Protein backbone atom coordinates (compact mmCIF):
# COMPACT_ATOMS: atom_id res chain seq x y z
CA UNK A 1 0.00 0.00 0.00
CA UNK A 2 1.42 3.40 -0.94
CA UNK A 3 1.91 6.08 1.72
CA UNK A 4 0.06 9.43 1.57
CA UNK A 5 3.31 11.20 0.60
CA UNK A 6 3.92 8.85 -2.29
CA UNK A 7 0.32 9.17 -3.40
CA UNK A 8 0.56 12.95 -3.32
CA UNK A 9 3.83 12.82 -5.22
CA UNK A 10 2.25 10.59 -7.85
CA UNK A 11 -0.61 13.05 -8.29
CA UNK A 12 1.97 15.82 -8.78
CA UNK A 13 3.74 13.86 -11.55
CA UNK A 14 0.47 13.15 -13.32
CA UNK A 15 -0.56 16.78 -13.22
CA UNK A 16 2.82 18.03 -14.45
CA UNK A 17 2.10 16.45 -17.86
CA UNK A 18 -0.47 19.14 -18.67
CA UNK A 19 0.49 22.58 -20.00
CA UNK A 20 -0.81 24.34 -16.87
CA UNK A 21 -0.36 21.60 -14.26
CA UNK A 22 -0.79 23.71 -11.12
CA UNK A 23 -3.76 25.62 -12.54
CA UNK A 24 -5.42 22.37 -13.64
CA UNK A 25 -4.96 20.72 -10.27
CA UNK A 26 -6.04 23.78 -8.29
CA UNK A 27 -9.16 24.14 -10.41
CA UNK A 28 -10.07 20.44 -10.41
CA UNK A 29 -9.51 20.12 -6.65
CA UNK A 30 -11.72 23.15 -5.98
CA UNK A 31 -14.73 22.45 -8.17
CA UNK A 32 -16.86 21.31 -5.24
CA UNK A 33 -16.35 24.53 -3.31
CA UNK A 34 -16.98 26.53 -6.50
CA UNK A 35 -20.25 24.66 -6.96
CA UNK A 36 -21.20 25.29 -3.34
CA UNK A 37 -20.59 29.04 -3.54
CA UNK A 38 -22.40 29.19 -6.88
CA UNK A 39 -25.43 27.52 -5.30
CA UNK A 40 -25.25 29.97 -2.39
CA UNK A 41 -25.23 32.98 -4.69
CA UNK A 42 -28.02 31.52 -6.80
CA UNK A 43 -30.13 30.92 -3.68
CA UNK A 44 -29.62 34.52 -2.55
CA UNK A 45 -30.57 35.90 -5.97
CA UNK A 46 -33.70 33.76 -6.24
CA UNK A 47 -34.64 34.66 -2.67
CA UNK A 48 -34.21 38.44 -2.91
CA UNK A 49 -34.95 39.59 -6.45
CA UNK A 50 -38.46 38.13 -6.93
CA UNK A 51 -39.50 40.11 -3.83
CA UNK A 52 -38.84 43.47 -5.51
CA UNK A 53 -42.40 44.18 -6.75
CA UNK A 54 -43.85 43.65 -3.27
CA UNK A 55 -40.94 44.96 -1.22
CA UNK A 56 -38.53 47.39 -2.88
CA UNK A 57 -41.06 48.71 -5.40
CA UNK A 58 -43.82 49.11 -2.83
CA UNK A 59 -44.66 52.74 -1.98
CA UNK A 60 -45.50 51.87 1.62
CA UNK A 61 -42.12 50.21 2.06
CA UNK A 62 -40.43 53.32 0.67
CA UNK A 63 -42.41 55.46 3.11
CA UNK A 64 -41.20 53.22 5.94
CA UNK A 65 -37.58 53.51 4.78
CA UNK A 66 -37.98 57.29 4.57
CA UNK A 67 -38.80 57.34 8.28
CA UNK A 68 -35.45 55.74 9.15
CA UNK A 69 -32.42 57.91 9.87
CA UNK A 70 -30.72 58.95 6.65
CA UNK A 71 -27.32 57.90 8.04
CA UNK A 72 -28.62 54.36 8.62
CA UNK A 73 -30.18 53.91 5.16
CA UNK A 74 -27.04 55.27 3.46
CA UNK A 75 -24.81 53.01 5.54
CA UNK A 76 -26.61 49.83 4.51
CA UNK A 77 -27.47 51.11 1.03
CA UNK A 78 -31.22 51.01 1.53
CA UNK A 79 -31.74 54.50 0.14
CA UNK A 80 -32.05 53.06 -3.38
CA UNK A 81 -34.69 50.38 -2.91
CA UNK A 82 -37.41 52.09 -4.93
CA UNK A 83 -35.92 51.03 -8.29
CA UNK A 84 -35.03 47.57 -9.53
CA UNK A 85 -31.44 48.60 -10.23
CA UNK A 86 -31.04 50.18 -6.80
CA UNK A 87 -32.71 47.23 -5.08
CA UNK A 88 -30.37 44.76 -6.84
CA UNK A 89 -27.36 46.93 -6.05
CA UNK A 90 -28.29 47.18 -2.36
CA UNK A 91 -29.28 43.58 -1.73
CA UNK A 92 -27.09 41.48 -4.05
CA UNK A 93 -24.02 43.43 -5.13
CA UNK A 94 -23.66 45.58 -2.03
CA UNK A 95 -24.60 43.14 0.72
CA UNK A 96 -25.29 39.41 0.54
CA UNK A 97 -23.52 38.80 -2.79
CA UNK A 98 -20.53 40.87 -1.69
CA UNK A 99 -20.37 38.86 1.53
CA UNK A 100 -20.58 35.44 -0.15
CA UNK A 101 -18.15 36.24 -2.98
CA UNK A 102 -15.63 37.80 -0.59
CA UNK A 103 -15.69 34.78 1.75
CA UNK A 104 -15.27 32.40 -1.19
CA UNK A 105 -12.37 34.34 -2.69
CA UNK A 106 -10.61 34.83 0.65
CA UNK A 107 -10.95 31.12 1.42
CA UNK A 108 -9.46 30.14 -1.96
CA UNK A 109 -6.64 32.69 -1.66
CA UNK A 110 -5.71 31.74 1.90
CA UNK A 111 -5.67 28.00 1.14
CA UNK A 112 -3.72 28.28 -2.13
CA UNK A 113 -0.28 28.98 -0.63
CA UNK A 114 -0.54 29.52 3.13
CA UNK A 115 -2.79 26.51 3.67
CA UNK A 116 -0.75 24.34 1.34
CA UNK A 117 2.52 25.23 3.05
CA UNK A 118 0.99 24.64 6.46
CA UNK A 119 -0.09 21.13 5.48
CA UNK A 120 3.22 20.29 3.81
CA UNK A 121 1.68 19.89 0.34
CA UNK A 122 3.50 22.90 -1.09
CA UNK A 123 6.90 21.21 -0.64
CA UNK A 124 5.64 18.11 -2.44
CA UNK A 125 4.30 20.21 -5.31
CA UNK A 126 7.61 22.08 -5.69
CA UNK A 127 9.46 18.76 -5.80
CA UNK A 128 7.85 17.85 -9.13
CA UNK A 129 9.27 20.09 -11.82
CA UNK A 130 7.34 23.31 -11.17
CA UNK A 131 8.84 26.60 -10.03
CA UNK A 132 7.63 28.72 -7.14
CA UNK A 133 6.68 31.53 -9.50
CA UNK A 134 4.69 29.06 -11.62
CA UNK A 135 2.86 27.79 -8.54
CA UNK A 136 1.96 31.32 -7.42
CA UNK A 137 0.90 32.52 -10.86
CA UNK A 138 -1.20 29.47 -11.77
CA UNK A 139 -2.95 29.37 -8.39
CA UNK A 140 -3.71 33.09 -8.68
CA UNK A 141 -5.10 32.37 -12.16
CA UNK A 142 -7.25 29.51 -10.84
CA UNK A 143 -8.69 31.75 -8.14
CA UNK A 144 -9.35 34.55 -10.65
CA UNK A 145 -11.18 32.19 -13.02
CA UNK A 146 -13.37 30.91 -10.18
CA UNK A 147 -14.26 34.48 -9.15
CA UNK A 148 -15.07 35.41 -12.76
CA UNK A 149 -17.27 32.32 -13.11
CA UNK A 150 -19.23 33.39 -10.02
CA UNK A 151 -19.59 36.88 -11.52
CA UNK A 152 -20.80 35.40 -14.80
CA UNK A 153 -23.36 33.32 -12.91
CA UNK A 154 -24.66 36.45 -11.16
CA UNK A 155 -24.93 38.23 -14.52
CA UNK A 156 -26.92 35.38 -16.06
CA UNK A 157 -29.28 34.89 -13.11
CA UNK A 158 -30.03 38.60 -12.63
CA UNK A 159 -30.65 38.94 -16.36
CA UNK A 160 -32.92 35.88 -16.20
CA UNK A 161 -35.01 37.49 -13.45
CA UNK A 162 -34.97 40.99 -14.94
CA UNK A 163 -38.42 40.82 -16.53
CA UNK A 164 -40.20 38.36 -14.19
CA UNK A 165 -39.16 40.42 -11.14
CA UNK A 166 -39.92 43.75 -12.90
CA UNK A 167 -36.40 45.03 -12.24
CA UNK A 168 -36.00 47.01 -15.50
CA UNK A 169 -32.20 46.71 -15.36
CA UNK A 170 -29.99 47.91 -18.21
CA UNK A 171 -27.88 45.00 -19.52
CA UNK A 172 -24.70 47.07 -19.95
CA UNK A 173 -25.02 48.47 -16.43
CA UNK A 174 -25.48 44.91 -15.15
CA UNK A 175 -22.37 43.74 -17.01
CA UNK A 176 -20.27 46.56 -15.55
CA UNK A 177 -21.62 45.89 -12.06
CA UNK A 178 -20.76 42.18 -12.33
CA UNK A 179 -17.21 43.03 -13.40
CA UNK A 180 -16.87 45.38 -10.41
CA UNK A 181 -18.38 42.68 -8.19
CA UNK A 182 -15.76 40.18 -9.38
CA UNK A 183 -12.91 42.68 -9.17
CA UNK A 184 -13.80 43.54 -5.59
CA UNK A 185 -13.91 39.88 -4.53
CA UNK A 186 -10.69 39.09 -6.41
CA UNK A 187 -8.86 41.90 -4.61
CA UNK A 188 -9.67 40.44 -1.17
CA UNK A 189 -8.72 36.96 -2.38
CA UNK A 190 -5.41 38.19 -3.78
CA UNK A 191 -4.53 39.88 -0.49
CA UNK A 192 -5.29 36.54 1.22
CA UNK A 193 -3.01 34.80 -1.30
CA UNK A 194 -0.22 37.30 -0.63
CA UNK A 195 -0.59 37.06 3.16
CA UNK A 196 -0.40 33.26 2.89
CA UNK A 197 2.76 33.53 0.79
CA UNK A 198 4.32 35.93 3.28
CA UNK A 199 3.59 33.87 6.39
CA UNK A 200 3.03 30.28 5.25
CA UNK A 201 -0.11 30.16 7.35
CA UNK A 202 -3.73 29.96 6.22
CA UNK A 203 -5.07 31.93 9.16
CA UNK A 204 -2.99 34.97 8.25
CA UNK A 205 -4.25 34.74 4.72
CA UNK A 206 -7.83 34.75 5.94
CA UNK A 207 -7.06 37.64 8.25
CA UNK A 208 -5.43 39.71 5.51
CA UNK A 209 -8.24 39.17 3.00
CA UNK A 210 -10.98 39.77 5.57
CA UNK A 211 -9.22 42.94 6.73
CA UNK A 212 -9.41 44.41 3.21
CA UNK A 213 -13.06 43.40 2.69
CA UNK A 214 -14.29 44.61 6.09
CA UNK A 215 -12.21 47.77 6.13
CA UNK A 216 -13.43 48.70 2.65
CA UNK A 217 -17.07 48.26 3.69
CA UNK A 218 -16.61 50.17 6.97
CA UNK A 219 -14.71 53.05 5.37
CA UNK A 220 -17.44 53.38 2.74
CA UNK A 221 -20.16 53.38 5.42
CA UNK A 222 -18.40 56.01 7.53
CA UNK A 223 -17.62 58.08 4.44
CA UNK A 224 -21.35 58.23 3.71
CA UNK A 225 -22.02 59.91 7.05
CA UNK A 226 -20.98 63.41 6.03
CA UNK A 227 -18.58 65.67 4.19
CA UNK A 228 -16.02 65.44 6.99
CA UNK A 229 -15.59 61.71 6.36
CA UNK A 230 -15.83 61.58 2.56
CA UNK A 231 -12.04 61.26 2.27
CA UNK A 232 -12.40 57.68 3.54
CA UNK A 233 -13.99 56.74 0.21
CA UNK A 234 -10.57 57.09 -1.40
CA UNK A 235 -9.25 54.32 0.89
CA UNK A 236 -12.15 51.93 0.36
CA UNK A 237 -12.09 49.35 -2.48
CA UNK A 238 -15.83 48.93 -1.82
CA UNK A 239 -16.30 52.61 -2.58
CA UNK A 240 -14.09 52.42 -5.67
CA UNK A 241 -16.48 49.82 -7.03
CA UNK A 242 -19.89 51.08 -5.94
CA UNK A 243 -19.67 54.81 -5.13
CA UNK A 244 -21.18 55.78 -8.50
CA UNK A 245 -24.15 53.38 -8.20
CA UNK A 246 -23.10 51.28 -11.22
CA UNK A 247 -26.44 49.47 -11.52
CA UNK A 248 -28.20 52.83 -11.95
CA UNK A 249 -25.59 55.02 -13.63
CA UNK A 250 -23.32 52.48 -15.30
CA UNK A 251 -19.89 51.28 -14.24
CA UNK A 252 -16.86 53.49 -13.88
CA UNK A 253 -14.65 51.57 -16.31
CA UNK A 254 -11.56 53.15 -14.77
CA UNK A 255 -12.55 51.53 -11.48
CA UNK A 256 -13.05 48.19 -13.25
CA UNK A 257 -9.55 48.33 -14.74
CA UNK A 258 -8.09 49.64 -11.48
CA UNK A 259 -9.48 46.82 -9.33
CA UNK A 260 -8.17 44.09 -11.64
CA UNK A 261 -4.85 45.91 -12.13
CA UNK A 262 -4.25 46.11 -8.38
CA UNK A 263 -4.98 42.38 -8.07
CA UNK A 264 -2.52 41.61 -10.89
CA UNK A 265 0.19 43.69 -9.20
CA UNK A 266 -0.47 41.96 -5.86
CA UNK A 267 -0.37 38.59 -7.67
CA UNK A 268 3.06 39.50 -9.06
CA UNK A 269 4.22 40.53 -5.57
CA UNK A 270 2.98 37.15 -4.31
CA UNK A 271 5.07 35.30 -6.91
CA UNK A 272 8.14 37.37 -6.00
CA UNK A 273 7.55 36.78 -2.30
CA UNK A 274 7.18 33.01 -2.67
CA UNK A 275 10.33 32.88 -4.81
CA UNK A 276 12.38 34.55 -2.08
CA UNK A 277 11.02 32.79 1.00
CA UNK A 278 12.19 29.62 2.72
CA UNK A 279 9.39 27.11 2.54
CA UNK A 280 8.72 25.12 5.68
CA UNK A 281 6.02 23.46 7.75
Could you tell me how far the N terminus lies from the C terminus, measured between alpha carbons in angstroms?
A: 25 Å
Rg, please? 21 Å
Percent helix, as a range, is over 70%
Largest beta-sheet details: none
Mean pLDDT: 88
Q: Count up the helices.
A: 13
Give the low-confidence spans.
1-13
Q: Which of globular, elongated, flat, extended, rod-shaped describes the shape?
A: elongated
Order of helices and strands: HHHHHHHHHHHHH
DSSP strand content: under 5%
- Quantity of strands, as a count: 0
Structural class: mainly alpha
Organism: Saxibacter everestensis
Pfam families: ABC2_membrane_2
Protein name: ABC transporter permease subunit
Keywords: Membrane, Transmembrane, Transmembrane helix
Quick overview of this protein structure:
This protein has 281 residues and is mainly α. The protein is 75% helix and 0% strand.
Q: Can you give a write-up of this model?
A:
The chain is mainly α. Helices cover 75% and strands 0% of the residues. Helix 3 packs parallel to helix 8, helix 8 packs antiparallel against helix 13 and helix 9 packs across helix 10. The chain is elongated and about 65 Å long. Keywords: Membrane, Transmembrane, Transmembrane helix. This is ABC transporter permease subunit. Pfam families: ABC2_membrane_2.
Topology:
Layout: H1 4-15, H2 21-29, H3 31-48, H4 59-66, H5 70-76, H6 84-119, H7 121-126, H8 132-161, H9 171-199, H10 202-223, H11 237-242, H12 246-249, H13 253-276
Amino acid sequence: MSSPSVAAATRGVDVSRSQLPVFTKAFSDGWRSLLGWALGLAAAIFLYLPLFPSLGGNAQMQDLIDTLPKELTETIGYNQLSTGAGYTQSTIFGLIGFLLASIASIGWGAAALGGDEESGQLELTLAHGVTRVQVAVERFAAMAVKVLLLSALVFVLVLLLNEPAELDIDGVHLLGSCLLFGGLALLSGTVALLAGALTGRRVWGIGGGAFIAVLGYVFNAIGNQGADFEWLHALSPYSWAYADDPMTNGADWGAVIGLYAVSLVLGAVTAFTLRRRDIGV
